[in-house]
Amino acid sequence: MATPQSRLQMRFASAFKRFFTSTEEDRAQDEARDVPRPFIEHFIDLRDCIIRGAVAWVLAMVVVAPFAPWVIELLQTPVVASGLQEQGISVQGLEIGVGFSLFMTTMLWGGTIVSLPALLYFIFQFVFPGLRRHERNIVLATLVAGVTLFTGGVWLCFNFTLQLALDALMAINTWMNVPVTILQAEAYIGFVLKILLAFGLAFQFPLILLVLGWLGLLTADALKARRGIAIVLIFTVAMFLTPPDPLSQILMAVPMCLLYEATIHLVRLREKMTATIEE
Questions:
Q1: What are the start-end ranges of the H helices in the chain?
Q2: How far apart are CA 87 and CA 220, in angstroms?
Q3: Cβ atoms within 10 Å, residue 248
Q4: pLDDT over threshold 60, residue 33
Q5: Whole-number Å distance between alpha carbons of 267 and 217
């Protein structure tokens, strides 16, 4: 008689097989749908994809443009939250063209972020016809996980790391007898955007390992055996990507280590599901 654990494992295996493996029926449908086409048709599809993406990007920048002042104000939130503003420290422009420069920066970055769903849709519309059903499911699952991890990294940085980093850097300035009372607007906004991007991209590292494990190029035992090396590498990367203070490094490295551990378990789960299917 099957135990509850074995029944649950069989259900997972069935769901895994349905979403992430190819069946005979899928292969037959893909072969019937994948009719060979002339190269010029693929070239035309690629051209249309690029044109649509460019139009979506330009429209997104136009939509974002009126909100540029609000975005700049939002990016100054860590200064307020860290209490620096109460100490007389403020973000100010020191050049006559700083407003226009920040407007262009906000419009370009904001337009890229807002248009990203449309850009991905056009790219997938071009690529998906050449993929099988289980391959499309893997791509979509990876995309959802990537967006979630990137958003989580940005959220963690914006709500915690930036405040601690600003406090630490200001403390170092005071200790070195070079107190700062004005934060140059362009330098500050650039600093914030780089740190946010660094956190978002750093949180993609476990996803890369998961994809490699999902494809069978890495095993859970290999990841587990190299856990110590991975932790050292994670803290080293965090040291270079974060401001020069230990708290920022820890806030980036610890979640990445936890994600690495979760990756080991997910890869092991994939191996168990594959073994169950083969049986």
A1: 4-20, 24-33, 39-64, 68-75, 77-81, 98-127, 133-156, 162-175, 185-202, 205-214, 220-225, 227-241, 246-278
A2: 51
A3: 25
A4: no
A5: 11
Q: Which residue has the tokens 């899928």?
A: 26
Q: Tell me the whole-structure pTM to 2 decimals.
A: 0.78
Contact call for residues 34 and 136 (beta carbons, < 8 A)? no
How many angstroms separate the CA atoms of 137 and 198, rounded?
A: 28
Q: Exposure pattern of 14-51 as b/e (b: 16+ CB <10 Å)?
A: eebbeebeeeeeeeeebeeeeeeeeeeeeeeeeeebee
Distance in angstroms (rounded) separating the CA atoms of residues 95 and 78: 23
151, 154, 156, 158: CA torsion to nearest 10: -140
- Angstrom distance (rounded) from CA 244 to CA 171: 12
Distance CA 38, CA 47 (A): 15
Residue 112: the pLDDT is 86
Position 87 confidence tier, pLDDT thresholds 50, 70, 90: confident
Question: What is the 8-class DSSP label of residue 13?
Answer: H
**CA atoms of 83 and 67, how far apart (whole Å):** 25
